[in-house]
Amino acid sequence: MRVLFLILCLIPAISYAQDMADRVLVEKSKKTLSLYRGDKLLSRFHVVFGANPVGHKQEEGDERTPEGKYLLDYKKADSAFYKAIHISYPNADDIANANQRGVSAGGAIMIHGQRNYFGWASFATRYFNWTNGCVALSNNDMDALWSAVDEGTPIEIRQ
Length: 159
Known about the structure:
Number of strands: 8
Distance between the termini: 58 Å
Mean pLDDT: 90
Strand content: 25-35%
Order of helices and strands: HEEEEEHEHEHE
Strand order of the largest sheet: 3-2-1-8-4-5-6-7
Radius of gyration: 18 Å
Helix content: 10-25%
């Protein structure tokens, strides 16, 4: 009888098990962030970017979102925005390119939800690019992303 009870208790946990993504694809021109496991699309979210979204980030303050292959290298629950996942920008090439031009490559590029205490505004902020170069989505979508990716997940950002 105890075994039957234990099995019945586990059924809801099994049915709610979530596939973890093994890669993330951001397409700036489509304003989407897609989660994949192998070739299987798990989820797709609407996102917005830096206020100057066309092209690869060149330097600190240019309000561009970087393009290329990076890692989601850590999660930050205590961000100024609703949760944040750090993108490993700048890489060695980004730093070398910025150094060659005598500028800072910048950093602190994240995927995050809405600014703290402004989650209610996501109905409006989804229609324009407002970050300083980050990838932003609604807080509900950020919750789904947060639970679907582990630190170390590869991310590719394309125009």
